[in-house]
Structures are given as C-alpha cells and as structure tokens.
Automatic annotation (TrEMBL):
Keywords: Cell membrane, Membrane, Transmembrane, Transmembrane helix. Pfam families: MFS_1. It is a multi-pass membrane protein. The keyword Transmembrane applies. This is MFS transporter. SUPFAM superfamilies: MFS general substrate transporter.
Length: 446
C-alpha cells in the first residue's frame, strides 16, 4: 500500500497534502474511538442482561442515528465542515463521558445507558457523513478518486485498531478503562481537527429549508435507477450483515464460554479483513486485471456462506478466520463503487446522497437486530446466522438486474465525475437545485 504522501499527486500544493494527512489521521482516530466503544458497551450489556437489553440497545441506537443523520447532513451544505465536525465530536465526547461514568460507578440501567449513548451517536451522526465527503474540499477533483481509496484504507485501519485496543482494555482493565480510553481518543481527534482548514460550505446562500433539501436528495436517488436498486440491495445486505457482526457476535462469544478478549479478537478479525480488502480494492493493477464488477459480485456472493460458517462453528480460531473473510469480502464490496458514487453526484448533492446511504444502512441496523432478537426467542443463535447468511446470498443476486451497474463500475476514473448529471439529468430538477442554491445548475457540477 502506498504511503499517505503518495496519495495526492506531487504537483499538489504542500498545504493541501499536509491538510489531507491530518484529515486521514483524524478520520482513522474517530473510528478507533468508535470501535473501542462498540466493543466495550455491548460486552457490558451482555454481562449484565444478555439478549433482551442487547437487542433493545442495537435497535434504539440505530433508530437514533436514522433520525438524526438526515438532519445533521443538511448542515454540511450550509456551514464549514471543520466547525461541524468539531461540534459533533464535542457532543460525542459528552455522551462518552456519561457512559464511562455509569460504568465506573457500577450503575447499570439500560434506560439511562441508552439516553447517554443516543447523545454520543447524535454527535457521530454529524461527524461520519461529513468526514466521508470532506476530502473533496481539501484536494482538487483530479486527485479525489485515489484520495478516497486511500481514505477508505485508513478508515479500515482505524476500524482494525479500535477492536484490538478495546479487547485488550477489556481483558486487562475492564469495561470502565476501555470507555475512558475512548474519551482520551476523542480528545486526541479534537486536537487533530483543530489544524484542519475551514472548508467553505457548498451552498453559500441556501433558501430552502432542511426538509426541502433532504427531499431533493432522496428524490434524486430514487430517480436514478442505478442508485435506487443499489440502495435497496444495500438495505438487504445490511439487514443480514449488521446483526451478524454486531449484536449477535458478543452473544456468540459468550455462548461459547469465551472471555471479552475473544470478542476483541473477533472484532479485530473483521477489521483486519476490511483492511486487507481495502488494500486489494485500492490496488489499481488488481482492479484493472479482475474488473470492479467481477470483484464486487464475487465478494458479495461469498459473504453469505462465510456468515453461516461463523454461526455453525464451535472453534474460536475458525470463527475468527471466518470473520476475517467476512471483513475482507465486505470491504471489497464497499470499495468497488464507494468513491464513484460520490464523484458521480453533483457537488451540492453529495452530502445529502451520502447521508441517504448511511440512513439506509441504519434502517437495516434497526430491522436486522429486531428480527434477530425475535428469532432468538425461538431458535438457537446458529440457526439465526443461517437465516441471515441465506438472506444475504439471495440479496446479492439483485446486482445482476440493476440497470447500468456493470457499465458504471467499469468506467475509467476520468469519466466518473458528474456522470449522474449527464446520464440522469431528470433526477436533479432545476427548481429543486435553484431552491437550494440559486446560482447552481447540474451542468456546473458535471
């Protein structure tokens, strides 16, 4: 994998390269902090009240993100992204401190825990979509495809480091220490983001309200057949995948009689797989030789059987190896089209359309754990994994009937910018855009 310095072209200004380095560092550290919390909090709930509270926690937290994400995403087109990221981190920090205090005093109340966790997730709902698109404010268009691939690689690295730190903290110092470690990491991210440039808002003089802006983004996604099908398939895949590597995983580890360290190992296996997948997905030679379409379809097809193996095995090492395969395949699926979908959208729709992607993922994170909790009342956890694995395998067939899917994935990088505006001009109605940005038209973004 090339070093960070190699991501932007050498001809780019030194200030832009430095800003992009700081941004990558901050983005990775946010994910480290988030993953530490995602290891520590579910494990604490598992030890206290098991399946019922864990299903409730996963479902209500996903509902909170689903409700707050569209509202927060609108702000990214109106105000400086750096300012909003720092505000979101402060809110996240406040919620994390509340959770750490509850654990430190040994006071477990699922209602109070949910309240403070929802505060933290509201902050993350502002940070995550803005960091997903902020690279476009730091680098010129020509550098973005490679820069976004590099960003995805370092995001995977952050997602690998978090479970490893969380698992070690749980093993040697307990839940409270892991949660205070999360707070230290958030403070470090705040220090890093202080030096980022204050990026200008995409919409200088917005006239429409947040609902009008959000509706325009949702309508644009629905009118683009490629995006519509892609989004529906993403929901089905998330419906099966999210609970299998989320709420079901600590239950599986606990049912096998393993310690919290093994939960960290399993989470780290998923993240390591994602890191390796990101390395493969950003390797131009591999992608050119195998093709984005073939890589994505092969990866999504293998995800289902890998999940089934996780649920059926009783050997810890086999489970960890299967989860590594799950992470690898999932990363390939995400990488094959991640930056393209952003670049193909008009600039002033990117944050909104990215937020819709995240909201759809959160909707699947609501329905998936709810179904898992319901099924666990009647069937063993291995059978629940089997159902989800089959669901994922069936959902992967949808890519074959998605219009222009193969064509879009196989486009040259230089042809991706503004592709949606060119091929789906009806998706971006002039009146909707003029209500958001009076002097902006789809052609200017192409």
């Amino acid at each position: 994998m090339p070093p960070i310095d190699a991501t932007p072209p050498p001809a780019e200004p030194a200030s832009a390269i430095r800003a992009f380095r700081r941004f990558l560092c901050g983005n990775a550290m946010v994910l480290v902090a988030m993953m530490v919390g995602q290891v520590a909090v579910p494990w604490w709930i598992t030890l206290k009240n098991g399946r019922h509270d864990l299903a409730l926690y996963a479902t209500l937290c996903a509902v909170a993100v689903c409700l707050t994400m569209p509202l927060m995403s609108m702000l990214g087109d109106r105000h400086s992204k750096r300012l909003l990221i720092r505000i979101g981190l402060c809110v996240y920090l406040l919620g994390a401190i509340g959770t750490a205090c509850l654990a430190s005093f040994g006071y477990y109340d699922i209602r109070l825990l949910l309240a403070v966790e929802i505060v933290a997730l509201s902050g993350l709902s502002m940070v995550i979509p803005l960091m997903s698109v902020m690279a476009s404010d730091l680098l010129p268009q020509a550098a973005l495809p490679q820069a976004m691939q590099q960003q995805k690689f370092w995001q995977s690295a952050g997602q690998l480091g978090g479970p490893m730190l969380g698992g070690l903290a749980l093993s040697f110092a307990g839940v409270s220490f892991a949660l205070w470690l999360q707070i230290v990491l958030i403070l470090a991210v705040l220090a890093v983001t202080e030096s980022l440039p204050a990026s200008p808002p995409a919409t200088t003089h917005p006239r429409g309200g947040w609902w009008q802006e959000l509706s325009a983004g949702v309508r644009a996604k629905w009118r683009i057949g490629l995006e519509r099908n892609w989004t529906i398939i993403t929901f089905v895949v998330g419906l099966a995948l999210i609970p299998c590597i989320g709420m079901l995983l600590p239950l599986k580890v606990h049912a096998m009689g393993l310690s919290g360290q093994w939960l960290g190992i399993c989470e780290a296996s998923v993240s390591l797989g994602m890191l390796l997948g990101a390395a493969v997905g950003s390797n131009a030679r591999i992608v050119e030789r195998l093709g984005r379409f073939r890589l994505r379809v092969a990866a999504i097809t293998l995800l289902g059987p890998a999940l089934v193996l996780v649920g059926q095995t009783h050997a810890p090492l086999t489970m960890a190896a299967s989860l590594l395969l799950v992470g690898f395949m999932n990363s390939i699926v995400v990488m094959m089209g991640y930056s393209r979908r952003i670049l193909a959208s008009p600039k002033r729709f990117r944050t909104r359309m990215m937020a819709v992607n995240v909201v759809v993922t959160q909707l699947s994170a609501i329905v998936g754990p709810a179904l898992a909790g319901l099924w666990l009342m009647h069937w063993p956890i291995s059978f629940v994994y089997l159902i989800f694995g089959i669901t994922l395998l069936l959902g992967s067939a949808g890519y074959w009937v998605t219009p222009n899917f193969r064509t879009f994935l196989e486009l040259d990088d230089k042809d991706v910018e503004g592709w949606y505006s060119t091929h789906y001009p009806h998706a971006f109605d002039a009146k909707e855009i003029s209500a958001i940005a009076p002097e902006t038209t789809p052609a200017s973004d192409a």
